[in-house]
Amino acid sequence: MDPTVLAWALAQPAGTRAAVLAAAFTGGTTRVTFDGRTVEYRSLDELGQALSVLHAAENSAARRPNVTFASFSREGSR
Length: 78
Description:
Blueprint: H1 3-10, H2 17-27, E1 31-34, E2 37-40, H3 44-62
Antiparallel strand pairs: 1-2
Helix pairs in contact: 1-2, 2-3
């Protein structure tokens, strides 16, 4: 597991999906309950992959929107 992803997840507010997954990962358990649903991961590696996917999704959304600047001029085109 990437330590950056784990640090990010542990820094999330308590009760969020990322924090719950991180707590399970650091506690060595593969069963996670969130929003009334329980998920049993096959291994800690699989749980870590889920955490990495969540991290990537959260961070790609944070990078948007992109801004593009354009400049136009009427001079010199005759």
